[in-house]
Write a structure and sequence with these properties.
Blueprint lengths: L2 H51 L6 H7 L2 H10 L2 H25 L15 H10 L4 E6 L4 E5 L5 E5 L2 E2 L2 H6 L4 H10 L8
Antiparallel strand pairs: 1-2, 2-3, 3-4
């Protein structure tokens, strides 16, 4: 074997080693990249799982619902005016949604939800809820009509289309008697408005 042949073999061997070395280096880079990507994915998944498992802080409205009267006053006393206003708006919207659902659940569907937002309607809902003198004397599930004794001890006949009380005749909007029936016989069984 000549020196030239030895040199060629040596160069060829070096070339193989260099290519193998490059391949190994490339393999290490690819392997490291895969490990980094897998690690990032594992961190993202773990973070999402942790956030889902972490108990959520109850909203102020949820805390108020479960609190006693004195605790409610304490919570409200710590709030700013704007926070109390926001909470009151949220409570009012919940009540309006419950009333609308109650009307629909007893098939009093001629009333759009915006009717319950009209001036004075919220006061009628409150009176229906808190006036202990009013009482449902008779209710027919067949046609969702009722006879109600009002706070003045007069009796009123009503159904989903209206009531024969003066308030309804004057305003042509649901009266406190209608709200009482909706609260009692609609989907709003708990009158804790």
């Amino acid at each position: 074997m000549t020196l030239c042949d030895k040199h060629k073999i040596n160069m060829w061997f070096r070339e193989i080693i260099t290519e193998t070395d490059r391949g190994i280096k490339m393999g290490v880079v690819i392997f490291a990249s895969i490990i980094i990507v897998v690690s990032v994915i594992a961190i993202v998944v773990a973070t999402k799982t942790y956030k889902q498992d972490k108990p959520t802080k109850p909203t102020t409205l949820e805390m108020l619902r479960s609190a006693s009267d004195s605790e409610q006053k304490r919570i409200l006393g710590k709030m700013s005016y704007n926070e109390r206003k926001r909470i009151q708006k949220e409570i009012d919207n919940n009540i309006l949604n419950m009333i609308d659902t109650a009307f629909k659940s007893i098939n009093w569907t001629v009333w759009e939800d915006c009717v319950h937002k009209a001036d004075g309607q919220f006061d009628r809902m409150k009176r229906a809820n808190f006036d202990k003198k009013m009482k449902i004397l008779d209710y027919s599930e067949h046609n969702n009509s009722a006879v109600v004794r009002g706070s003045s001890r007069n009796q009123y006949s009503l159904d989903g289309l209206g009531c024969n009380c003066q308030d309804y005749k004057r305003r042509n909007l649901p009266c406190k008697h209608m709200y009482l029936v909706a609260m009692e016989h609609g989907s709003v069984k708990d009158k804790g408005l």
